[in-house]
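Dissemination and training. As part of the outreach component of the grant, students in the summer workshop were shown how a complex can be specified as a set of sequence lines and then modelled as a single object. The example used during the hands-on session is reproduced here so that future cohorts can follow it. Participants entered these lines:
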Amino acid sequence: MPGVLDPFVPSSADPWNARRAAHLLRRAGFGPLPDEVDRSVAAGCDRTVDALFAFPAEPAPPAAFDDVRGAEQQLESTLETLRATKQRIDLKTHPELRDLYQEAGRQHGRAIVALAAWWMNRMATSPAPLQEKLVLFWHGHFTSAFADVHDAIAMFNQNQLFRRNAAGNFARLLDGVARDSAMLRYLNNDANRKGHPNENWARELMELFTMGIGHYTEDDVKESARAWTGWTLRDYRTGVDRRVFDFKPMIHDGGPKVFLGQAGPWDGTDIMRIILAQEATPRWVAGKLAAFFVSPTPDPALVDAMARQLRASAYDLTPVLKTLFRSGAFYRPDAMLAQVKGPVEFAVGAVRHLGINAPDWVRVYQAAGAMGQRLFFPPTVAGWHGGTSWINAGTIFARTDLAAGLISGRLGPVDDGVFPTLDAAVTRLLARPLAPHRHGTLALATGGHSSRTAVHLVMSMPEYLVA
Amino acid sequence: MRSMNTRREFLTKGLTILAAGATAPMFLTRTALALNNPWDLGLTASAAGRPDWPTLVVVQLGGGNDGLNTVIPFVHDEYYRARPKLAVPQQKVLRLTDEVGLHPALTAIKGAYDDGRVAVVQGVGYPNPNRSHFRSMEIWQTADPAGTGPKIGWLGRLFDSECPDCGSNTGMTLSAEMPLAMQGNSPRVVAVDDIARFGFHPVQGGGIAEVEAFKRLIQPVPGEEPLVDFLTHTEMNAMLAAADLNKLAGRLAQDAGSGYPRDPFGQKLRVIAELIAAGSPTKVYYVGLGGFDTHVTQAGRHDRLLESMGAGLGAFLGDLKTKGLQDKVLLMTFSEFGRRVGENASGGTDHGTAAPMLLVGSQVKPGVHGVHPSLTDLDQGDLKYQIDFRSVYSTVLEQWLGVRSDPILGGKFDPLDVIKPHVAASAGG
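and obtained this result:
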């Protein structure tokens, strides 16, 4: 009996061709280019999929972080000096501190923009774009927002955590997230202490990050919150130490608890263990992956099969993703061109398609924000809804505006040589022919020639908005 | 992911509408595809719409506004016992009645209340309260606590059933994302982040020819892939909306003053007042003010948010009066839930349940309506709701817009006595 995740078997009727290769590279990256598609066709599906997972070594932080570290050090050495005098320190008695705090805050605000630009550049230039696509996925799944964390270095550390574990093990990633300083601050678990539990992390951990609504009760949230007490930051007062996880037994509630029907003196590690053992968890995680990589309304049978595999692989993500990318289900008509490109995906892809090597990434990042996706500023803890919710009358124009801005060369020099003819432009931008009536209208409007106008028209058409 | 089901339904129904031409917007029933110029705005944009409707402004306070510190039961000891740090001192409360008063940051609202322009509806919620931001907001926006129906907004259903010939700007949100509340089966709403820049701009050298080419390229054609078809319709809708808005933008006042606070919330209300004054066909505006999820260090943060809200609403009311529009506009505030009675250990409050709603405008029956929920008879530490939010919706639908509320809300919800009788209520249920 055929399984929904059975591999795609190329045949003369159903070949491994440019259409399928482009589909895979679009989903596993950002705006594939013609030579990449050609290489993938020649290599075949299996080898292409394997190559997608060759992730590079961990990158260094952006150079812009030197400034924010400098500002933090200045603030802290001033604070240290003051503490040594044993006098009362507050902003009223020491107004110079206010300036130092504000400067540090400003530097963090600049650094987060620099970080977003740095990340978008990685999406465009990494030899393994799948890794960055997965980092983007995890950023929208395990959400944290700079507006609440106020620390660009902490957000970078979280970003690296996602990169390190992008296609690794979900259980390990979850453990990393539970100890991540940005998450601890975003969902207030740093303030969760014995006798005065704060439920924010405990709730969202189950509702959004692991099982989904309907698989736990309010009592489970309360008991979980108790278990997570004491999982906090080493010292919130200094830059370095507020980015370091620490377990503080003094404020931990080690008393008996009942969580998801199991009794014991649970702490955070136990909560994760119990959650990971639930049926709902692999199904929820598989569902999120399928919605991101396959289609907004994935086939339940596909999700079930992925969930079973995720459980069987003890939460190792690479085998599940490889199987998915090799499966017949991934190349079915209902999976092809079923996604609306998210703003960041659209913007990075557009930069690559136009051959802009060193764009003003800050402006591109701002444009993606105008389209509804500002990196490091998810609108709610649920992340970005995605799918057709990206598209409304306003965001459409934000896309056509960015396309016009990029094509104009104002955001970086465009390689005009990549669009010698109208057909070449369509191939490069869409990796598939246009429907005859559209092609006819386009040819009429452009006189059959390539031009900046023609490129802008193609990038503004619905066909360019989908992936 | 739930909103995707909405879209799939829309996609299938959208194609049916296109084929059958039954309840399609005017430009499609005029077999626009067969016309040489389906963009003739004389044919398309002059759709009847609902000129008989007054205007509704929905203000969404995102994150769960702490109702207990907004409309304060200062006369109850339990309030002070439950909130040793966060309770507002009695002498600072802006008293409305012998029992409740407003947070001191809401001086503008107090002023409007004294002018008879504010109705406070207490204890609004719904049965089996949900304390998830996402789910509770979805409930308020779909008016479907059971969650069994399709994910379509209550305002979307309003437009679908009561406004089939309406143009594409009937609803407008001043944000990048379209709230579920406004999403219906047909695209009659626009999301506008920046009125001045809203539209399709060609590349240099493209000119009008490029704009015209773009319009031809996005004309819907039968038999297209569903997603491309949805996008084509949305792009076409966007172009029609832009044409209308560009005309109006030319009439927007240039002065930067006009008494509104400079923050985004105040400026959005300013734009709304201008649009109404310029004769925009939009009948429902949606504005959000976020940041109310005050789990930690609520004092200060909540004050500033309320100040923003109050100052914006105050300026809006004053502006409407100056423009002679005050009788035509009703504003309603809501949040996805209130917050817990007891403060937490981080100087904040956690997700709660029932909370007050404000109805603001010259046509409200001013005063404090309903009963304040008991502070002792609680539901696991949370207030028990007294009024179902769908009653507030039915009041607005029937007594302000003059439409039957049952089909939109999926049932009968007793309206409240908070709106003065007026002309538009003639068709009410």
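Residues 343-465 of chain A form one domain. Students were then asked to discuss how this feature might be tested experimentally.
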